[in-house]
Design brief:
Blueprint lengths: L2 E6 L10 H16 L3 E6 L6 H10 L2 E7 L7 H14 L28 E7 L20 H4 L1 H9 L3 E2 L3 E3 L8 H17 L4
Parallel strand pairs: 1-2, 1-3, 3-4, 4-5, 4-6
Helix pairs in contact: 1-6, 2-3
């Protein structure tokens, strides 16, 4: 039985209550339960025990993160969660420090990870799909969704986790296509979290 940790990275605002992110999580859980995944959950904006969260990372075969894009990154509560949990995990349970040794202090920075699983990001964003991968759109200037998320990818790479393809739900405030997003999301979960974990 595959074990998955689901993290809700949403931070409540009056204009963004978190219903869409919660709906994606519920859809993922429904599919994963049908495939007999063992599931543990965390909401980064709620109270958590840092040691227990480290144990969840160690326990999980897959870490699934559902998060809004918040000022080109993640919410402050999710960032705090990562700062708390990953910093404790770096002390020997999730990684061997920064991966370097005193014998070779100039090589292998960031490659001390001890985890063997995978991770996947599912992101809700107000940006339209057309804002990415297009040098004519001057704000992102041609970068991809995963380029924008590079610091997050590096956080998980630090601990030895390997990426599954990122899912993006675009333009969720100005021009939402929620029903189509749900269909794409369900297909993505089946392909990435189920087929690639067999």
């Amino acid at each position: 039985m595959k074990k998955i940790l689901i993290i809700n990275g949403h931070q409540y605002y009056e204009f963004s209550e978190g219903k869409l992110n919660a709906s994606f999580i519920e859809k993922a859980k429904t599919i994963l339960n049908e495939e007999n995944f063992e599931i543990k959950e965390t909401a980064a904006s709620e109270k958590y025990d840092v040691k227990e969260e480290v144990e969840k990372f160690i326990w999980a075969d897959i870490v699934f993160v559902q998060t809004p894009l918040n000022w080109m990154s993640v919410s402050w509560s999710f960032k705090k969660y990562l700062d708390d949990v990953l910093t404790l995990g770096m002390m020997g349970s999730m990684s061997k420090g920064d991966g370097r040794t005193s014998e070779n202090p100039k090589k292998n920075y960031g490659l001390g990870g001890l985890l063997k699983g995978k991770y996947m990001f599912s992101v809700t964003a107000n940006a339209p799909k057309e804002a990415f991968n297009n040098p004519d759109e001057k704000f992102f200037n041609g970068i991809s969704e995963d380029d924008l998320l590079l610091p997050m990818h590096l956080n998980f790479k630090w601990f030895g986790l390997e990426p599954l393809a990122t899912f993006f739900s675009y333009d969720v405030m100005k021009n939402p296509e929620v029903e189509n997003d749900f269909i794409r999301f369900e297909n993505h979960i089946k392909e990435e979290l189920i087929n690639k974990s067999k």
